[in-house]
């Protein structure tokens, strides 16, 4: 006979959840985000220009302009942040400070 205590359903569920939530062995993407946000912002600019051209013909709702301008604004802020972070990481690497790990 074994001396193991009986396993409750709560313990079994917790163990099962921990087994399912293990981190996959995947390397992080080596991208700083500037290119991704630049492409997304460019799409919002193209969308805004298309809305301006379609204004008379299709009667575009005003909130669409707000969405396009907000996307452009957030994209510009994100590009600035990612460029700053890239410079900071390059500067830290020059001083021997390792990049943070996710």
From TrEMBL:
Where in the sequence does UniProt note compositional bias of the Polar residues kind? Answer: 1-11
Q: Where is this region: Disordered?
A: 1-25
Q: Kindly list the residue ranges recorded as spanning the membrane.
A: 33-51, 63-84
Q: Where is the composition biased (Basic and acidic residues)?
A: 12-21
The UniProt keyword set, sorted, is: Membrane, Transmembrane, Transmembrane helix
User: What is the protein named?
Assistant: DUF2530 domain-containing protein
């Amino acid at each position: 006979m074994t001396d193991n205590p009986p396993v409750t359903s709560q313990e079994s569920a917790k163990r099962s959840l921990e087994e399912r939530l293990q981190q996959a062995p995947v390397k992080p993407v080596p991208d700083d985000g500037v290119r991704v946000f630049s492409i997304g912002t460019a799409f919002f600019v193209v969308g805004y220009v298309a809305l301006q051209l379609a204004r008379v013909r299709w009667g575009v709702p005003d909130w669409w302009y707000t969405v396009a301008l907000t996307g452009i604004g957030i994209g510009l802020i994100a590009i600035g942040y990612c460029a700053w972070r890239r410079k900071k990481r390059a500067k830290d690497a020059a001083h021997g400070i390792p990049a943070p790990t996710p």
